[in-house]
Design brief:
Length: about 150
Amino acid sequence: MTFKELQLSQKPETKAMSNYILARKEQIKIYLTLHSYSQMWLVPWGFKNEKPKDYYEMYILAEKGVEALEAVRGTDYLLGTAAELLYASSGASDDWAKGVAGIKYSYTIELPDTGSHGFVLPASEIEPVGQETWAGVKAITRHFTDARIP
């Protein structure tokens, strides 16, 4: 299926978001998608068992995010590709953002937990998870504001 055929088959919401991102891809420095659950910071590629050429740079930045996230309350996160930490699968938006839109730093953050509660995180965990996730997001965005990278 070509990219054009794929676009034509998209749901209206997906098409609107992909058009929005593609129209601004030169300005977008980081693409993040949040998912649950597994406590992982995933780096492309997820659809195949190989890594992008700039994987190491992506990994180093993600590592800053994971360190900041873990510092909040000690939640352990794994870091790597979806293919190596989970299994190879297609359709992940971080792979699309990197491969199609060309956004270098594209990640999926798999939020807590690791299976005790699965997709139904207790209400008491929502705020702490938000706080630690926000710490990780702030840490990686500082890469661009502190270093003044274009």
